Structure formats: C-alpha cells, structure tokens
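Methods: example folding runs. The two proteins below were folded one after another, and each record is reproduced exactly as written to the output file, sequence line first and structure-token line second.
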Amino acid sequence: MKLDSRKLGFSVAGQRQNLDGSSKSYPNSQQKLQASTWVKLLELPSTFSFDEALLLCQVTEHEWLAWIPDHGEELLNTRQFSY
C-alpha cells in the first residue's frame, strides 16, 4: 500500500518565518546587523541544530544573543556566522 500525500489535504510550508510573521531576510555585506535577522552559522552548536540563527539582541560590539532552532539561545561571536 502506497501513501499518496496529495490526497491528505495539507501542504508543507517551504520557508521559515521570522517571529513577527514576515519572511526571513539576510542582510547584504553593506548593511549593519540588527535584531530579527537570520544569519548562517559557520559552525553548528550541536549535530541536530539548524544551520541558521535568529539574532535577538546585540550584547557587545562582536557578540549577539541568538535563537537557534532545535537548540535554543546561544551567545554568538560575529566570527561564528555570516550574513
């Protein structure tokens, strides 16, 4: 017996949303980092965590508090992610 997902009546969203409901955005290298921005992690905090993080607030000049899906909050140095 084969499962036909087209008949189940649901669809899977292909894009993650920011906490405010808008589509995620990555700043280009010209823009200054700001809260609510998705960044690409250069090193994963755990095997099962996502490779992206949502910046929550700036702690120091080179550190940000970020939320990583399937991991939680993490203090990141700007050298640990790209944008």
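Second run, written to the same file directly after the first:
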Amino acid sequence: MRRFSPSSIRPPFARYAHGVEVPAGARLLVTSGQLGLRPDDSLPEDAEGQAAQCFANITAILAEAGMTPGDVIRINAFVTDRAHMAGYMAARDAWLAEVADPPASTLVIVSGFTRPDFKVEVEVTAAAV
C-alpha cells in the first residue's frame, strides 16, 4: 500500500493519510458499521469506551480474515455530537498506536443511530496482498 499526503495541501489534522493506493491483486475486506456493543450486549456509556469496543469488534473481524489493523486502508467513523470527537479520536489513536502507516480516515457528526444510547459507529476497509 502507498500512502499519500502531498506537501501541496494542508497536512492531515490527525494521524491519518490523505490517500491510500491499493496494488492490483490485493484482497479487500469491507466491514459493516460496528457499534460499541460488547458480546454480552452491554454498552459502555461514554464515547471513548464505545469507540474502543467498535475497534475491538473490527479487530476480531480483521483477524478472522487473516488481517490486522495495519491492513486497514480507510476508516469511516460517525459520532452523534462534537463532544464525542475527542473520545473517539483517543480510541482510534490507541488502536493505531502500533500501526506504522496510518489509513485514510473520515469522521462525520450524525443526528443519531438506531438507539439513542449509541454514540459512535465505525466501519473500515482493509487490504492485504
């Protein structure tokens, strides 16, 4: 994978790449949006806890496909309030702490999810050769 953050545009606001190129022949994995639900259906109350669980769920999906967070090329994340951005970003950065080359990333504020107690949803695209 090649990451792109051209010097001719503003650098990324956080730890992500402006673009990622996937080579021909790579395997692609696209996840559904993951909520912060634990296997027992419990839900952390705060956005950071929910985001951390989203990433734990994604890690399990990646592992089943023989991939790791290092194979993620794009993160799409959704939070229900600007106040949840910092918690989400802390969980994302912790999840990417061991990843040398960060993926592309988008964070969007939405009006809500299927349940009012859901604060964060995360989906990823991963690629491996």
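Comment on the second run: The beta strands are 2-4, 19-21, 27-30, 34-35, 72-79, 104-109, 120-128.
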